[in-house]
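Example with several molecule types.
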Amino acid sequence: MEELIEQLKQQIIEALNFEDMTPADIDANAPLFGEGLGLDSIDALELIMLLDREYGIKLADPKSGKEVFRSVRSMAEYIQKNRTK
Amino acid sequence: MRITHEIEITPTAVILDGQTLTQTETGEKMLIELYRQYANDYPKFFKLDTLSRLGFIAAELLLKAEGATRFVPTEDRAVILANRSASIKNDTDYLETISEGNYYPSPALFVYTLPNIVTGEIAIRNKYLAETAFYVLDKPEQLTPIIETTLNAEHSELNSAIVGWCECNNANSFYAKLQIIWKN
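Resulting structure tokens for the full complex:
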């Protein structure tokens, strides 16, 4: 799980153009939206595409997004359970 | 009309009011270097496409040269830019994300598939509430009558505008020539 979290942090940095950030700067348990990383709605769409592109996960239920994208750790847990690649 | 400040940016040179600014980087990396040197307080910069980064940095340097109070809502300054190729660099980048066999459309690229994002970004940053417009033209001189008409429109509250040519073909091929221009 910790390895997946580190990989995911790096993928988020690249997908969202956090040019000044390293994986160490991201708290795996901090909120992704609002406080924490302060992501916006376009970033949310990028994260949905990241799940599809990198892990073969298509988020069919928009309501599930709120829980999946709570933090990097919750994303990693969801990926571990649902990945197809 | 009166031009008070002017900047030219190419991938290898930055000339502000006739003075060359020394940079160590070139191309898009130079735009990031300029941002870190002269702004560095607008994290959204890193989400912008190259055209928007180019226009944003050019406007930042012009406004620093002007030295007036900034970030106060104002309705007397317009932002009027133009180029020939619209958002071609970003359009090409987006196209790659929807190519056959690799269909993962990027929302972050899609939002920049319009060139007028750059004028809006400058206006948002500086709290300009008046006209913003981006024209796709053959030649820079075609913009002059548009600027004159906009600034001198009847009932207009405009006194000045950030105007100019802002073109980006790719990360290493771009050109901006922006000015602050006053009605009187």
